[in-house]
Design a protein that fits this description.
Elements lengths: L3 E4 L2 E3 L5 E7 L8 E7 L6 E7 L4 E3 L7 E6 L4 E6 L8 E8 L3 E3 L3 E5 L2
Parallel strand pairs: 2-11
Antiparallel strand pairs: 1-3, 3-8, 4-5, 4-9, 5-6, 7-8, 9-10, 9-11
């Protein structure tokens, strides 16, 4: 069973930055796609960003230019660098991996508030 462990969430003021990490229990090169989703209270889970095995990435329009997804295959880790955070970014962020099956992390809370 694959485990995805997220870290890096927390409370940040508007305009601030956070970096989320997602470490997998096996080589991330085995996954076709990895990504980050988020779910705000009362809303559906939505894609934030995803990155494929050889590095190309896709972003939600709402985060383009502010968030960057990257991967470190040697560390089995995917990152989400979040800059210029806004209150609308407040949500639980989930790591996702798609390979032989779909895998999800437990989620990490990001709260943007003054």
């Amino acid at each position: 069973q694959v485990q995805l462990v997220e870290s890096g969430g927390g409370l940040v003021q508007p305009g601030g930055s956070l970096r989320l990490s997602c470490t997998a229990s096996r080589s991330i090169f085995s996954f076709n796609t990895m990504g980050w989703y988020r779910q705000a209270t009362g809303k559906q889970r939505e894609l934030v960003a995803r990155i494929v095995r050889f590095g190309s990435s896709v972003y939600a329009d709402s985060v383009k230019g502010r968030f960057t997804i990257s991967r470190d295959n040697a560390k089995n880790t995917v990152y989400l660098q979040m800059n210029s955070l806004q209150s609308e970014d407040t949500a639980v962020y989930y790591c996702y991996a798609q390979g032989d099956s779909d895998y999800w992390g437990q989620g990490t809370q990001v709260t943007v508030s003054s």
